[in-house]
Design brief:
Largest sheet: 11 strands, antiparallel
Distance between the termini: 15 Å
Number of strands: 11
Order of helices and strands: EEEEEEEEHEEE
Shape: elongated
Helix content: under 10%
Radius of gyration: 17 Å
Length: 120
């Protein structure tokens, strides 16, 4: 599941982050011009004008008829964040308050439906 900025450069997609007039590209394998910043993580700065595409993507889904962001997975469980904006619904679903107005829960993967990527 993806959640973050994605840049397409020289025909490949990279996790990325904007940095002024440049974008930092991240790769698990490195390559031409990439420098290792951690084990299994390489970074390269590229001017925005060299990118073929740049967008934000997040993974969305439905659980018990309500909209959620799919944040992560552990075994047969998904970490979900409620995106419906109604605290009464969040409480009725037994969601855990994570922050002010933010509710999350671990849900069985088999109960989660309509998983798709949303491009922003």
């Amino acid at each position: 599941m993806r959640d973050g900025y994605i840049a397409r450069w020289k025909g490949a997609e990279y996790d990325s982050s904007p940095d002024g007039a440049h974008v930092r590209l991240y790769s698990p394998t490195g390559g031409d011009g990439f420098v290792q910043v951690a084990e299994g993580r390489y970074r390269r700065g590229v001017p925005i004008g060299e990118l073929e595409d740049f967008f934000y993507v997040r993974t969305v889904c439905t659980w018990r008829g309500e909209p959620f962001l799919l944040l992560g997975a552990s075994g047969e469980w998904y970490r979900l964040e409620y995106s419906g904006g109604r605290s009464d619904v969040a409480r009725s679903l037994g969601l855990e308050p994570y922050d002010n107005g933010v509710y999350q829960i671990w849900a069985p993967a088999e109960e989660v439906t309509d998983i798709s990527e949303q491009y922003l």
